[in-house]
Amino acid sequence: MAATAIKQQIQLRRREVDETADLPAELPPLLRRLYASRGVRSAQELERSVKGMLPWQQLSGVEKAVEILYNAFREGTRIIVVGDFDADGATSTALSVLAMRSLGCSNIDYLVPNRFEDGYGLSPEVVDQAHARGAQLIVTVDNGISSHAGVEHARSLGIPVIVTDHHLPARHITRSGSDH
Predict the structure, then answer these.
(1) Which residues form the DDH domain (predicted)?
(2) Is the confidence at residue 76, as pLDDT, over 90?
(3) Which of the residues 4, 31, 52, 111 has an alpha carbon 20 to 30 A from that of 97?
């Protein structure tokens, strides 16, 4: 069978970009176009610092999460950190495990599920994997805010869940072990 070549013309069209954005002149032209095309109008919008973050006390359920973690460290509870395989997920998984170890947690492991086999986030299948590894507490990083079925499945197995996630919820936030 002969291969048939499909010829198709593709026309590239530049996006309309507001070149009047007040971005630093020293930025390379490509970055200026990228930022402007995404609606960034000033250098202040690119500023991300600790000063712009919420005070930790305003994070939902944070005091209960600290209490759960403190007791887990003290009692030697088996903690499984469930992350994600992308850059922020891998980084937050590694950072969480290292931080908890440095704070005295001796019974900790991590699980980075295969998104293509297990779905995204804390799915019931991922909970089963953590349970098989002896999880007595699950801490999600970079996922979990919309994992209602997974959190409920963990609860049905008697495993509390602390959800840490920077994503926005689709409708309502998953009630984790630190919310009650």
Answers:
(1) 78-172
(2) yes
(3) 52
